[in-house]
């Protein structure tokens, strides 16, 4: 196990091991775009992480106490706001080829949390092919495969006419009629482009943006009223109803 300092670089591929784990706590960190030959389970004990994945272009938000699965070979960038206390467990895809082929955000139950902690803390020289370590790895893989997925993925449009949406992800996307006026294309054309690139209608995409942004702001302890106002809701109750319809729980319960 390595405790990764904020200024350190780390390459899991250089070990040639089936499993490599690290622990760290970083603040205001940007990994830059990179990729590795190993798949990565990134688990946050505290703080949230933005993950920008490429091919397809995708923004994922990793909330506290959840995990992101990043498949081997996927170019990605991790950006952390405030302090993020995290664990990374890297898995050789040749040993476990049946994990998801795309970036997903996973629920973490108490058992999976403990498994990830123990694997992240294990010495680099651990023999994962036998004994207790083999059982630990097998159980962790089974729990990862059984874990529920969180709706924290925002596919990004690729058409150059919609570049303003991708460049302005910090701001609430405008209503469709305003975007059409700004872009100089019809609402029908924009709707077609958005659906082609993201698989969603524009309204669905805008609502998904609201959800991802809401979780990110709540995770860094922004007041609920402020988040509701930023996201364009007329009242706190309207925001809570929206959040519950998207996640199945209220903001307070989800963040707890």
Automatic annotation (TrEMBL):
Q: Which UniProt keywords apply?
A: DNA-binding, Transcription, Transcription regulation
Gene3D superfamilies for the chain: Homeodomain-like
Q: Which Pfam families match?
A: HTH_18
A molecular function annotated in GO for this UniProt entry is: DNA-binding transcription factor activity
Where's the HTH araC/xylS-type domain? Answer: 160-256
PANTHER family, sorted: HTH-TYPE TRANSCRIPTIONAL REGULATOR NIMR, TRANSCRIPTIONAL REGULATOR-RELATED
What is the protein name given in its UniProt record?
HTH-type transcriptional regulator NimR
> Taxonomic classification, please?
Bacteria, Pseudomonadati, Pseudomonadota, Gammaproteobacteria, Pseudomonadales
Question: What would be the name of the gene that encodes this protein?
Answer: nimR 3
């Amino acid at each position: 196990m390595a405790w990764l300092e904020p200024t350190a670089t780390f390459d899991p591929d250089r070990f040639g091991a089936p499993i490599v784990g690290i622990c760290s706590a970083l603040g205001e960190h940007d990994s830059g775009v990179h990729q590795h030959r190993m798949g990565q389970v990134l688990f946050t004990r505290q703080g949230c992480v933005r993950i920008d994945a490429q091919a397809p272009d995708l923004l994922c938000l990793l909330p506290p106490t959840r995990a992101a699965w990043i498949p081997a070979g996927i170019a990605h960038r991790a950006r952390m706001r405030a302090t993020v206390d995290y664990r990374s467990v890297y898995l050789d895809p040749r040993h476990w080829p049946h994990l998801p082929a795309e970036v997903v955000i996973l629920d973490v139950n108490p058992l999976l949390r403990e498994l990830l902690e123990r694997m992240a803390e294990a010495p680099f020289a651990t023999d994962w092919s036998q004994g207790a370590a083999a059982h630990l790895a097998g159980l962790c893989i089974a729990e990862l495969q059984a874990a529920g997925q969180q709706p924290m993925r925002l596919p990004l449009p690729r058409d150059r006419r919609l570049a303003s949406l991708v460049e302005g992800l910090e701001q609430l996307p405008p209503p469709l009629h305003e975007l059409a006026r700004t872009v100089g294309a019809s609402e029908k054309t924009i709707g077609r482009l958005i659906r082609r690139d993201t698989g969603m209608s524009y309204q669905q995409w805008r609502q998904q943006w609201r959800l991802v942004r809401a979780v990110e702001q709540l995770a860094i302890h922004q007041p609920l009223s402020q988040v509701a106002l930023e996201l364009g809701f007329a009242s706190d109750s309207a925001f809570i109803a929206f959040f519950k319809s998207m996640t199945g729980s209220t903001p307070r319960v989800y963040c707890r």
